[in-house]
């Protein structure tokens, strides 16, 4: 058991930047429908490697179509659904722990809707977490919500706790856009403090990403897992530098 624990710790360490934070480039959007800016995934994998990001998040079919990652970590997305419509939140398992090991992944990602999660989905999540833990593979939980731009701070605190209870090693959540009372923000900050490392989700292209990153740092986030705010930005490399600077320790 100790050896497996060491293996998981070593993989998590690989997903840290030189500055000691997690900065992941999410490139797993293509399965949900046409995604402007993500036509050439290999280009963005190369950008991530050049900027020494922690890693990239990919679906398994895009891994062999990408350049070798070298020191850049790979997080294999295990949930998805080829549907650009409203059912995009009801994702299902699309890859296994064996797929992750075969592709030399450093972690797997699970997309989970906390509010109204179906029992069978939670069963799938539990099975994946157990299988990953058995081989020392970290699990990144990606929390999805119906309206990410107006996510409630109190519900996000619960989501973080629920993901920790389910065995998350890393947790990705959107920033709160509602429930911004002192009590709820304090509860969110406390949930982040005692949970597995929490990463801020980028969401749709933001008008003021710097303000969002400032809020994330003040709440205790350990890094970011961002896609559209990079590959849809006018100056993506400047955005990456901004993210890295904000989370430099």
CATH architecture: Alpha-Beta Barrel
Q: Which of globular, elongated, flat, extended, rod-shaped describes the shape?
A: globular
Strand order of the largest sheet: 1-2-3-6-7-8-9-10
Mean pLDDT: 91
Uncertain segments are: none
Class computed from helices, strands and strand pairing: alpha/beta
Largest sheet: 8 strands, parallel, barrel
Q: What percentage of amino acids are in beta strands? A: 15-25%
**How many individual helices?**
9
- The H-and-E topology, N to C, reads as HEHEEEEHEHEHEHEHEHH
In CATH, what is the class?
Alpha Beta
Number of domains: 1
Helix content: 25-40%
Terminal Cα separation, in Å? 31 Å
Name given to the CATH homologous superfamily: Aldolase class I
Q: Can you offer a commentary on this structure?
A:
- With 249 residues, the protein is of the alpha/beta class.
- It has one domain (2-246): Aldolase class I (TIM Barrel, Alpha-Beta Barrel), CATH 3.20.20.
- 39% of the residues lie in helices and 17% in strands.
- The chain contains 9 helices and 10 strands.
- It has helices spanning 2-14, 41-50, 97-102, 119-134, 153-165, 182-194, 209-219, 228-231, 236-246, and strands at residues 22-26, 55-58, 73-77, 79-80, 92-93, 107-113, 139-144, 170-173, 198-201, 223-226.
- The chain has an 8-stranded parallel beta barrel, surrounded by 5 helices. It has a two-stranded antiparallel ribbon with strand order 4-5.
- Strand 7, helix 5 (153-165) and strand 8 form a beta-alpha-beta unit.
- Helix 5 (153-165) runs parallel beside helix 6.
- The longest helix is centred in the middle third of the chain and has 16 residues, at 119-134.
- The radius of gyration is 17 Å and the shape is globular.
- The model has no long low-confidence stretch (mean pLDDT 91).
């Amino acid at each position: 058991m100790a050896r497996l624990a060491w293996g998981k710790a070593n993989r998590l360490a690989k997903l840290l930047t030189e500055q000691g934070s997690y900065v992941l480039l999410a490139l797993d959007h293509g399965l949900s429908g046409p995604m402007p800016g993500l036509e050439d995934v290999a280009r963005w994998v190369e950008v991530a490697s050049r900027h020494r990001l922690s890693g990239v998040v990919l679906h398994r079919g895009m891994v062999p179509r990408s350049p070798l990652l070298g020191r850049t970590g790979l997080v294999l997305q295990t949930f998805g659904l080829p549907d650009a419509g409203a059912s995009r939140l009801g994702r299902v398992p699309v890859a296994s722990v064996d797929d992750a090991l075969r592709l030399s992944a450093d972690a797997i990602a699970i997309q989970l809707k906390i509010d109204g999660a179906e029992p069978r989905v939670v069963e799938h999540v539990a099975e994946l977490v157990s299988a990953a833990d058995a081989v020392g593979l970290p699990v990144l939980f990606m929390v999805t919500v119906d309206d990410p731009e107006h996510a409630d701070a109190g519900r996000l605190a619960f989501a973080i706790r629920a993901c920790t209870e389910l065995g998350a090693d890393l947790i990705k959540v959107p920033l709160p856009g509602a429930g911004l009372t002192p009590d709820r923000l304090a509860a969110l900050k406390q949930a982040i403090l005692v949970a597995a490392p929490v990463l801020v989700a980028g969401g749709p292209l933001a008008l003021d990403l710097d303000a969002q990153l400032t809020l994330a740092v003040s709440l205790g986030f350990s890094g970011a897992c961002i896609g559209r705010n990079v590959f849809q930005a006018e100056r993506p490399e400047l955005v990456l530098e901004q993210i890295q600077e904000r989370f430099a320790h």
